[in-house]
Amino acid sequence: xxxxxxxxxxxxxxxxxxxxxxxxxxxxxxxxxxxxxxxxxxxxxxxxxxxxxxxxxxxxxxxxxxxxxxxxxxxxxxxxxxxxxxxxxxxxxxxxxxxxxxxxxxxxxxxxxxxxxxxxxxxxxxxxxxxxxxxxxxxxxxxxxxxxxxxxxxxxxxxxxxxxxxxxxxxxxxxxxxxxxxxxxxxxxxxxxxxxxxxxxxxxxxxxxxxxxxxxxxxxxxxxxxxxxxxxxxxxxxxxxxxxxxxxxxxxxxxxxxxxxxxxxxxxxxxxxxxxxxxxxxxxxxxxxxxxxxxxxxxxxxxx
Amino acid sequence: xxxxxxxxxxxxxxxxxxxxxxxxxxxxxxxxxxxxxxxxxxxxxxxxxxxxxxxxxxxxxxxxxxxxxxxxxxxxxxxxxxxxxxxxxxxxxxxxxxxxxxxxxxxxxxxxxxxxxxxxxxxxxxxxxxxxxxxxxxxxxxxxxxxxxxxxxxxxxxxxxxxxxxxxxxxxxxxxxxxxxxxxxxxxxxxxxxxxxxxxxxxxxxxxxxxxxxxxxxxxxxxxxxxxxxxxxxxxxxxxxxxxxxxxxxxxxxxxxx
Lengths: 304, 258
What we know:
The complex is a heterodimer. Chain A is an alpha/beta fold. Helix content of chain A is 32%, strand content 19%. Chain A has one domain (6-54, 73-195, 216-297): Aldolase class I (TIM Barrel). An eight-stranded parallel beta sheet of chain A has the order 3-14-13-10-9-8-7-4, with helices on one face. A four-stranded antiparallel beta sheet of chain A has the order 5-6-12-11, with no helix packed on it. Chain B folds into two domains: 3-96, Translation factors (Elongation Factor Tu (Ef-tu), domain 3, Beta Barrel), CATH 2.40.30; 102-214, Nucleotide-binding domain of ferredoxin-NADP reductase (FNR) module (Rossmann fold), CATH 3.40.50. In chain B, helix 4 (176-183) packs parallel to helix 5. The longest helix of chain B is centred in the middle third of the chain and has 11 residues, at 122-132. The two termini of chain B are 30 Å apart. Chain B: Pfam families: DHODB_Fe-S_bind, NAD_binding_1. Chain B: Keywords: 2Fe-2S, Electron transport, FAD, Flavoprotein, Iron, Iron-sulfur, Metal-binding, Pyrimidine biosynthesis, Transport.
């Protein structure tokens, strides 16, 4: 028995560990360091219809046990991702989850329609939660009706299951979760970053050129755990949990909170080998907990 | 090849005010291919501070498997690094980036190396390698004040060395450009590392000359994945942008839009 194997809509995962979108590029840099086939899946960097150059620098600032970023969805655009990035990833035995972003519904639909036809793209991750772009992104993620309608529009054209990435920057994340489930989402990924700021001590001015950035890293984990705990009790679709995962113990927490699989984000910058390290450590952790299969841990925080 | 190495500290001393020279040994040294490459150091085994610190390599000794880094203890992370003592281990990722092209200057030719503040260290290994190749090196360094200047003797052993300080407490009062004007432009190549305004001034003064500039930028991952350290390129350059960590930190003068 493979103790780490997880099945989710569209995804046969060897293990529940995957790098989170935006923290792994399109895999090339990490592919120089280890065999990407070790990973459960790869969530590639957000792809938009057109090429995007992103925000001015500085784009990152360190904070207590975390960091702020405002990259601004820099990516080479749909055509280049289809022609260069995705074919390169085909050499690895690993399902790709394509993060889809845009400014308006028509952009999302067009990217989803095309990118879901790539042979190694097994699921989409609808990015309605990027806090660092002026239009689109998070505006879809903070209004239940808009989130529902966008999900439905993308579901209509996608060749593969659609996961929706939720923003924590809302009053009640459960409402958004229920709305995307009603819109036909096959799964939820959560959480994206929390909007924050850091000021320069000398000048008093914001360090990040975009003024605000998205907070990630171990600092946000308690917020993410709470939200996964809440959302997993009000929807019946699976959750891929993320937010501050930096070591094996964090993965156990996300599964216990109600996630079926776990993504690792900022920790890839701290230790580029963190994903394979966690995967290697998981079986011993299951032994420690007296658990045969990893799925037994899912939702145990609220299971009766 | 980039590796993650737990390197052992073999030396640590303050060589100028808040400027530390640290020696590290480990197999990572064997992977270093050119002067101007850098390493990404995790100063704590906890998540506080979270990110690694990019620090340039000042010199390498492949026989002893040892490298020297010189850094300014300025923020929390570098201050923690400065507290590491001999025989302690440090998590180092590297070598990273593309360094200075030593072969761009032929034996018998002259190279000018211009450094500003904490941009001076990578020029030391560069000067050693150029000098070993029979290149005549002239060094021009700028510091804020005399008490933060370092390695004058080491560089003087390799070639003519001129210092400028903003307050005039050592060498010429003013900036590296004030020294550059006196030296003239009888050289074949220039190499420079320092703050952006200095790089801009150097590039402008030596317009038309062959030169290589090493840039500094806030980084996340250090390996090209996070897109934190991108710079726009100038018109007519093949790529619309470059990543300082993985495409650089050294670029041909004129490529990066300053």
